[in-house]
Structures are given as C-alpha cells and as structure tokens.
Amino acid sequence: MYICVCNAITERQVRASVDAGATTLADLQFELGVATCCGCCAATATEYLPGGRCSSVCDVRSIAVPVNPPAALAEQPSAPAANTYPVIQVAVA
Ligand code: FES
Fold first, then answer.
1. Which of 6, 20, 22, 41 could be stapled to 37 by a disulfide with Cβ–Cβ 3.0 to 4.6 Å?
2. How far is the CA of 40 from the centre of ligand 1 (A)?
C-alpha cells in the first residue's frame, strides 16, 4: 500500500526505515522523502513511528514497584504483605 502518493513511498519502505532506526517524521522525510511534497501523508506516516497505531516496534514500559516497601507503608493495615506487589507491564502499540 502506498503511504505517500507524491513520492511513491510504500508502507513496506516506511516500516523498513523505522526498523532501521527512524523515530521521527523528519527521519522519514530525510530517508524516504515521505511528506515532502503536498504533506497529505504526514499523519499516516507518523502512525508507523514507534508508539504510533501502526507501529511494529513494541513499546513496553515497566512500572517499578518496591518488593520490600518502606516500613511506614508496610505497617498500614490495608497494605499487602511484603513480596506480594505485582509487577505490571503495559504494552503500548
Ligand atoms: S502524499 Fe506524501 S507528500 Fe504528497
């Protein structure tokens, strides 16, 4: 599928550029020439960058939770016992 009609840039080319390290629209413009003519494709091309809806780059963020909470936190009646805090990972595509 073409992403940039003006410059005949395909989705495959955009994905390859992102896989090779492109992280901004400016990178895609420099590497491929995408969004350098009419600019209609800029928003679509941006969706292929890390964090975008069409990104194939997995953006996983971890939330650090103390395994051994401070004594003040552990002493709270509703606080779970030490070593029972869940480690939550959220994948943002
Ligand atoms: S469609 Fe990409 S610059 Fe026009």
1. 6
2. 5
